[in-house]
Amino acid sequence: SKAQIVHKFFEQTNEVLMYIITMIMNLFAPIGTFGLVAHAFTGAGFGAIKQLGMYFFIVLLALFIHFFVVYGSALKLLGKTNPLAFYKGFLPAITLGFSASSSTATLPVSMNCSKKMGVRPEIASFVQPLGATINMDGTAIMQGVATIFIAQISGVDLSLMQLITVVVIAVVASIGTAGVPGVGLIMLAMVLNAIGLNPAAIGIILGIDRLLDMTRTSVNITGDATCALIISKNEEKKLQRNQSGANEPV
Ligand code: ASP
Fold first, then answer.
1. Contact 81, 75 (CB under 8 A)
2. Which among 21, 96, 130, 229 has most CB atoms closer than 10 A?
């Protein structure tokens, strides 16, 4: 209670800053995006529309493969769980993540879903909030594909070393991405900078990012829940082993 004035000060400063940013974004982002997209299209011709469509399709495909193949096999092999049953139980969180585009906002529902599927509460409440902050596979996938796409549309050939840099920096950038809508795209600037591309080119994909953001958020939260389930199962196994060891006659 003694720090109420300081608390209020930061809260209100945040309000004012958010208002200014929203105003600037509403006024200038549409014009800026239009300018960048027009520049890209007049330079590359109508082929650019096809390229943008391909970018969209490749990100979606990579997200689906990650969702079903990578998480699916992790659930089956490490979590000894039927992936389809897991996806079904986690569906309320997946749909909320899809519509809210925010891992953080989906956290209460995703933790509830995993607890209902047998994840121990203390594990869910440690692994999932941590995951919602730092574990963003879907975002890293988008950042990797987006960087290659922007390099190609800018006519830059990336060397093997630059490609490796993209992988490493995309993982780091996704860790730094906040679990709220659209931040993955802002962190993409870091990846582009690392290999000498112009971050302003993000404007080209800004217009089609919303649907990708919705999809990658669902992937992000499913990754967190997958980890929580695998850890919970392993802990249970250890506990059972310890108990049976303790019960064995000496
Ligand atoms: N919206 C994503 C999430 O909350 C972050 C991003 O990629 O923009 O997980």
1. yes
2. 229
What DSSP element (H or E) covers 220?
helix 209-247
Cα atoms in the Cβ-side hemisphere of radius 13 Å centred on 231: 18
Question: What is the Cα–Cα distance from 218 to 240, expressed in whole angstroms?
Answer: 33
Closest CA to 225 of 71, 21, 35: 71
Identify the CA nearest to 179 among candidates 225, 210, 144, 136.
136
The model's pLDDT over 117-173, given as tens digits with 9 standing for 90+, comes to 999 999 999 999 999 989 999 999 999 999 999 999 888 999 999 999 999 999 999
Residue 23 class from Cβ within 10 Å (0-12 exposed, 13-18 middle, 19+ buried)?
A: exposed
Domain locations in the chain as residue ranges: 1-44, 47-239
Ligand 1 centroid vs 175 CA: distance in angstroms?
A: 11
47-239: CATH class: mainly alpha
Ligand 1 atom having least distance to the Cα of 220:
9
What φ, ψ does residue 135 adopt, rounded to 5°?
A: -105, 100
Measured over the CA atoms of residue 122, residue 125, residue 131 and residue 133, the dihedral's sign is negative
Please tell me the distance from the alpha carbon of residue 74 to that of residue 82, in angstroms, as a whole number.
10
Name residues contacting ligand 1 (CB within 6 A).
Answer: 101-103, 136, 139, 177, 179-184, 213, 216-217, 220
Q: Is the pTM of this model over 0.90?
A: no
